[in-house]
Amino acid sequence: MKTATTFAMPLTDEQRWQAVCERDPAYDGQFVFAVRTTGICCRPSCRSRRPLRGNVRFFVDVASALAAGFRPCKRCQPASIDPQQQRLRKVEIACDLLAQESAITLDALADAVGMSRWHFHRLFKTVTGLTPKRWQLAFRARRLRDALSASQKVTDAVLAAGFPDSSSYYRQADAALGMTARQYRDGGESATVYYALSPCSLGRCLVAQSERGICAILLADSDEALLAELRHIFPRAFCEPGSEAYAIEVEQVIRHLDNPATPFTLPLDLQGTAFQLQVWNALRAIPPGQTVSYQALAERIGRPAAVRAVASACAANKLAIVVPCHRVVRADGTRSGYRWGPARKAQLLMKESDKES
Ligand SMILES: [Zn+2]
């Protein structure tokens, strides 16, 4: 249980009772209350009918209430973790399963996280920007890129990356790489990345798209700097200006950059290690107007000791604002670095806090 940071002094029972009467969610996690007559314990914000003061006992956390023989309320579920974290956890479990060698069906994945097939598919796509099938293909492609960069034999690398041992594996591997495995290893002909340049409220912006989805959103003061960064990120790709139809898609990206509260529905091509993907997905779950510390983010992905690795993954983000790495701040609340400059981070956070207040 986390300690309260907003209240320096321990709460008095009078303050606790006041919080229960007001059903104040700010006190959730700081204590629970239990009702002698029903044998049930609740979060302060529980919407159930208020008990009589004389029947109420307070506990510092739900574990103490359970130890005293109370049952957790079914309505406010004081023992369960934050629902948003629960959903992310389900996606993480699915990603772990997809990262394994063997084939797994959508039904089996949904089963493994206790959801219906339809709800699971929608959740997975919302969090990762990819269907489970495309996520697995992208994951294998990443492993294949690593193996090919270590210049293994092409056949060995394709098999080592988890592509099935069948006549179709070259085709699947090629589709995942956007080029043939041999081309990739040889650094010969390259995949194409289409891009568009546009003004936005944060300066100049570049939006790049692979055949799998939006693969980079970059910010800078000049188009030259944007194109140099794009070539640095995709050294082997053939970077080409996008079509008119693509420019229309880019408008949706710019709208989202200028107002992060507008929905973003384009498919994403998140290219990174499994760990980076985990961090970026956790970032995408932070709503506009909220910030977290690197430590809190590390805890959210279940790796509390990996604070520095989490900070590196934030710095390696290639999708400005859509993967909101600007919402991570130091533990003391001060801003830390930002890939696209501290001034832009300050501007973004200020704008988002205005909207929320
Ligand atoms: Zn309750």
TrEMBL record:
Entry keyword annotation includes Secreted: no
Residues involved in DNA binding: T38, R47, R49, R71
Record note on cofactor: Binds 1 zinc ion per subunit.
Swiss-Prot/TrEMBL GO biological process terms: DNA alkylation repair; methylation
Catalytic residues of the enzyme: C42, C325
GO molecular function: DNA-binding transcription factor activity; methylated-DNA-[protein]-cysteine S-methyltransferase activity; sequence-specific DNA binding; zinc ion binding
Keywords: Activator, DNA damage, DNA repair, DNA-binding, Metal-binding, Methyltransferase, Transcription, Transcription regulation, Transferase, Zinc
Domain of life: Bacteria
Residues the record lists as binding Zn(2+): C42, C46, C73, C76
Cofactor: Zn(2+)
Catalysed transformations (reactions): a 4-O-methyl-thymidine in DNA + L-cysteinyl-[protein] = a thymidine in DNA + S-methyl-L-cysteinyl-[protein]; a 6-O-methyl-2'-deoxyguanosine in DNA + L-cysteinyl-[protein] = S-methyl-L-cysteinyl-[protein] + a 2'-deoxyguanosine in DNA
The family this protein is said to belong to: In the C-terminal section; belongs to the MGMT family.
Protein name: Regulatory protein of adaptive response
Gene: ada_2
